[in-house]
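Input record (Table S2, row 280):
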Amino acid sequence: MTIESALLPVEDLVAAVDSFLAASPAARAWDVETAFDWAAADAGRLSEGQRSAVQFVTLIEDHLPGYFDVYQRSFPVDDTVDLPTFIHNRELHHFTVRWALEEDTHSRALARYQEASGMADRSALRGELAVEGQKSFELPYTHPVQYFAYALVQEKATQMYYHQLRDVVDDPVLGAVLTRLSRDEARHFSFMADVVTRYLRTQGDDAVEPIREVIAGFRMPLADTLRGYWRWALRIADVADYDHTAAYDHLIKVIDRAVDARTDRVDELADFVAQCRTLG
Ligand SMILES: [Fe+2]
Ligand SMILES: [Fe+2]
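Output record (fe (ii) ion complex):
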């Protein structure tokens, strides 16, 4: 199966993009320059583990060009695709550019926090981020729903992580940054959940196996390329759990709400996702 042959009907995609943009009015937007009292940022109020957590999520967010490139390559907006596919991809692009702007803002906000709070020197940080940022990021998927199912888990996992971290940090400036970030991730999650729901409603069982494959092979962004990723993930676990499987419960809810009556295949998918959830 090719990506093109399994795309969501364009009207469904348009509805999802319109809802996302309606939930993201300019009046609710924020920017790095004016949203925070940077002069008050103080990393001295953070524990060692909390500073590591900030460094970790800065690296994850800073890989935005790599994530954006995946969408550009998988949903091209050029003459390599037929006209109906272009129409679909052009509509998706309205979402993708907005999303990319927001994720890029996240990376700038976290880097700015590191600098303003005394955690890092700006030019040294730039060099460190570049080492990981340059590494390629691939999602080897064959069905379009897989890109959205992957992002659904990833957006929910980061939303939950920022929320937990915000609850334990003692620097109000970092708390304010994490509040902004987790609200944005919640909106991104809602878009992904909407799209996955529409795939399940329009394609039924045909969308089930591709979603199962995403969960079976799930890796958080940079898990394969970031030096010492797992050691790092363990080190910050005492601060707030960076556990993407916690997001699986939300995927199960999306699956449940999408289908009126569960088929055997949908049942198996929900069971499988639940089993992949880390206990404890
Ligand atoms: Fe983000
Ligand atoms: Fe996001």
